[in-house]
Write a structure and sequence with these properties.
By secondary structure, this protein is an alpha+beta fold. It is 15% helix and 31% strand. The strands form six sheets. Strands 3, 4, 5, 6, 7, 11, 17, 20, 21, 22 and 24 form an eleven-stranded mixed sheet that branches. Strands 12, 13, 14, 15, 16 and 25 form a six-stranded antiparallel sheet that branches. The longest helix is centred in the first third of the chain and has 21 residues. It starts with a helix and ends with a strand.
Length: 352
């Protein structure tokens, strides 16, 4: 074999060895070349996902967080008309707590409790009843109404209830709209009501406890299925709720149709539903009712597609209504809006 061929073969072998050595180099645990030869998979860049910061403090009405100045103030307790000519209502969608009460005859009346929300349009507004006045005292709120029954007026005076009554206020606080007929067309707005309370020099600091709330949404461990709830007061007064499991809320319906806000067109919803049984009797020729709201009685709590039996207790006219498990522990609600349906009995309540 000639010298140049021998040299060529040697050079080829050297290049082959060098190439193999380079391809076999691995990163070791120390990151150096060589070493044990154990390959360590390099981790991808780790991204830190920041959790959204909760701003403000929790509302005692809903457990929803809001700016401190919106929470540390007295709520508005507003009487809403629910007769046919009054529907749909404006602003009730923003109430953190809403009640439906029997009034007289075959009508019901709504009561909205507002703290952190400030709707521009509120109404139609109607007259007060004693059990509605009680709620204003329970929540240390400004009662907003247009007149009232004789007993309601007496209670407002005797209990010194801070109120904004259209009978003694101007059209800068209350006004009538032309798209509905009297008496179903009296409206107001949050800013107008706020200015009215300031003009009257009412106390601004709140003096009530509110409800207890979970830190986050929780499904009841026990209870019956409650995907659909119906509360029938009369043939043309039926509230119902249909559970939306995706959003963990109930969509409110009235007489079979979605209950929508007059201004936004959005459907009213509830995270919590309480059906409270309260005995009532007619006390005069005008069919006004006296309700046994002081004491204790049966109720049902509905949330997250389940329903359980609970107990309500109220120690005095001015005292707060509290809800308890049958074991005696105070009820803790899920954060969100609550609807309270006050009924004489559970005969016309359907849960399925």
């Amino acid at each position: 074999m000639s010298d140049w061929k021998r040299k060529g073969i040697i050079l080829f072998l050297i290049l082959l060895i060098l190439s193999a050595g380079t391809s076999c180099r691995k990163k070791t645990k120390t990151g150096e070349e060589g070493g044990t030869g154990i390959e360590i998979e390099e981790p991808e860049d780790i991204k830190t996902v920041e959790q959204p910061k909760i701003e403000g403090i929790a509302s005692p009405l809903s457990g929803i967080y809001a700016k401190e100045e919106k929470v540390n103030r007295r709520p508005f307790v507003i009487v809403y008309d629910n007769q046919l000519g009054a529907r749909p209502q404006a602003g009730l969608i923003d109430a953190e707590i809403a009640y439906e009460f029997l009034a007289e005859g075959d009508i019901t009346r709504y009561l909205g409790i507002f703290l952190i929300n400030e709707p521009e349009d509120i109404g139609p507004i109607r007259s007060a009843r004693p059990y509605l006045v009680e709620k204003a005292l329970e929540f240390d709120g400004y009662l907003v109404h247009v007149g009232g029954s004789n007993q309601a007026y007496a209670d407002i005076k005797n209990k010194k209830v801070t109120n904004v009554n259209s009978m003694s206020r101007g059209n800068d606080v209350f006004w009538r709209k032309s798209h509905k007929k009297i008496p179903h067309n009296l409206y107001s707005g949050y800013e107008a009501l706020k200015k009215a309370t300031e003009k009257s020099n009412y106390r601004k600091e709140p003096q009530f406890d509110g409800f207890k709330f979970n830190d986050s949404f929780k499904i009841l461990e026990q209870g019956e299925v409650a995907n659909k709830v119906k509360v029938k007061y009369f043939a043309n007064k039926e509230a119902s709720y249909i559970y939306d499991s995706t959003n963990e809320i109930y969509k409110r319906h009235y007489n079979g149709a979605e209950h929508k806000d007059e201004i936004t067109g959005e459907t009213l919803t509830a995270t919590n539903i309480i059906i409270q049984q309260v005995s009532a009797k007619v006390i005069d020729e005008e069919q006004h009712l006296e309700m046994a709201t002081v004491g204790e009685g049966k109720a049902k709590y509905i949330t997250g597609g389940k329903a359980i039996d609970i107990i309500w207790r109220k120690g005095s006219y001015e005292g707060a209504t509290k809800y308890y498990h049958e074991t005696g522990e105070e009820l803790i609600l899920n954060p969100g809006k609550t609807w309270v349906q006050v009924v004489r009995n559970f005969n016309n309540v359907t849960i399925e």
